[in-house]
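Example 511.
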Amino acid sequence: MRYGFVIDNRKCIGCHACTTACKSENEVPLGVFRTWVKYTEKGTFPNTRRYFNVTRCNHCDNAPCITVCPTKALYRRPDGIVDFDSSRCIGCKSCMQACPYDALYIDPFEHTAAKCNYCAHRVDVGLLPACVIVCPEKAIIAGDLDDPTSEIAHLVATQPVAVRKPEQGTQPKLFYIDADAAALTPEAQTRQDGYLWGEVRPDDRPKLAVTADGAADPAGEARIAYDVHHPKPWGGKVATYLWTKSIGSGAALIAAVLFLAGAVDNRATFQIAAPLIAVLFILATSVLLVADLKRPERFWYLLLKPNPRSWLVWGGYILGVFGAVAFLWLVAAAAGLDTAMKVLMALAIPLALASAGYTALLFGQAEGRDFWQSHLLLPQLIAQAIVAGSAALLLFGVALGASDHELRVVAVALAVGVVLFAVLLLAELRGAHGNAHVARTVKLLTAGPYRPVLLFGVWLLGVVAPLILVAATVLMGPVIVTAAFAASAALAGLWFYERIWVSAGQDVPLS
Ligand code: SF4
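Predicted structure in complex with iron/sulfur cluster:
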């Protein structure tokens, strides 16, 4: 049995009765929606046409929201309905990033994720969903897609139907009859400053449609006349989490590699401060992760009700093990247990790489955000850890009396990290874009509202300044001054980068 929906656009009159019936039936609060009717318009007066597009959860057979949910709060019922259990939800918002259809929102009272659940409580007693009952045109058809005698199965078999974003591989069970391609594709739509009945609050979201190569899209004549959007789920805490994680993992990584290779020796910096930085910054990372939850008091569900398919869960385990090994390294170093310390340093290297890199797999599960699906993300995260770790060690090395030679060695590691970071960033921005969603995001970064921060915060402060200062550190003195400035500039530039990377990645509308 596989329940699904057909929306018959030949019949829809855009009356919003489905939206209001859903709100009433499910007590959906003001400002959030389980279903809504998007309007797009095409053509030039007098030859214009308005398209209606009923939007909601697609009850995907291969639902990325279920995969990413760390506590199994989202699940697929045996009848194919994708339902949720708000008592398990910790409010991490990863499902909102995973859903390519903008179907989920955070309930402003419960502080947990919610969405269309096909009115499962009605289905369980033999009733149809409220939107189906209320539609005056019978434009919404619900039923079992596996039952060949059902109306929905007949429609899907005999009518030309379309689904939204089939390339995402989610196998949606929401089918549209007579849907306009541009009306189903947010990237192909142009947004104006106002909608039919009101102003649009100014934000960073792109206004012009573009193709995958970044050029203006001829299909972009579809103007959005009425729409609903849920706010960006992740903000400054997630950006800062990436930054602190890079510092914590990178400091242990660089110190362990350089110390075990015999390139550095200063006890206070590379044996004591390095694991201390790792412990403190991984702790800060964990605090930021918990603070970003809408239900932070439930963070322990990650351990007690884990979804083994979610990289949010594995990330928590990796950070925990890495933090523990770094702590033991610190204890061994403080106790003068050289052999144990070296073993723990060696153990810390793969764990630091895992801590830095697992986020690529987590963001990869955010299937709705195509910009984050880049295959360059894993090496980019490793490069960031090298930059942040070397920079932190430089600052501590200056303060703790590392020799000029050691500061120069770490400064070279910083330069290597910065060059790697810059090359990968160039490849990300200048390389071929996978689709129009990515092209739009890159345009926001390079020619949109993020351009000043990218130019001055990232390129100038985070790349050019550290490289010049590292060159000065290596070639002339006083080493401690140039090294400290190089490290500070690199850390500041990296934070700016995390901030715009997280924000821009969420700006292209999903619906
Ligand atoms: Fe619904 Fe989105 Fe989950 Fe698909 S991914 S089942 S549309 S919430």
